[in-house]
């Protein structure tokens, strides 16, 4: 499973979101590769990601991609990430 954590440039918010998603997935016992990427990478036609985690303000820019887009309100809220990843993966 491939998951993208997305932000505008792929070096700020996405890195924090990736770190927290890795922690949540480990706690859930789910193996997945999480990669911090820019919005441009997430929009590529050949994107291998099944799930894209993005802050709510970026969700509109991701409309129409083939990956499931999961909006995240608070990137530091591990409970929110847990609930949303469980819903997407389960």
Task: Describe the 3D structure.
Helices cover 41% and strands 24% of the residues. The protein has helices at 13-28, 39-43, 56-59, 78-89, and strands spanning 2-7, 33-38, 51-55, 68-72. The protein has one domain: Response regulator (Rossmann fold). A 4-stranded parallel sheet has the order 2-1-3-4. The model has no long low-confidence stretch (mean pLDDT 93).
Largest sheet: 4 strands, parallel
Q: DSSP strand (E) fraction? A: 15-25%
How are strands sequenced across the largest beta sheet? 2-1-3-4
The CATH topology corresponds to Rossmann fold
> What is the name of the CATH superfamily?
Response regulator
Shape: globular
For the secondary structure, the number of strands is 4
Radius of gyration: 12 Å
Please state the structural category.
alpha/beta
How many individual domains?
1
Elements, N to C (H/E): EHEHEHEH
- Total helix count? 4
User: Spans with pLDDT under 50 lasting ≥5 residues?
Assistant: none
Helix content: 40-55%
Can you lay out the helices and strands and say which pair or pack?
Layout: E1 2-7, H1 13-28, E2 33-38, H2 39-43, E3 51-55, H3 56-59, E4 68-72, H4 78-89
Parallel strand pairs: 1-2, 1-3, 3-4
Helix pairs in contact: 1-4
Characteristic key phrases:
90 residues, alpha/beta, Rossmann fold, 4-stranded parallel beta sheet, 4 helices, 41% helix, globular
Provide a short characterization of the protein structure.
The chain is α/β, with parallel strands linked by helices and 90 residues long. 41% of the residues lie in helices and 24% in strands. The mean pLDDT is 93.
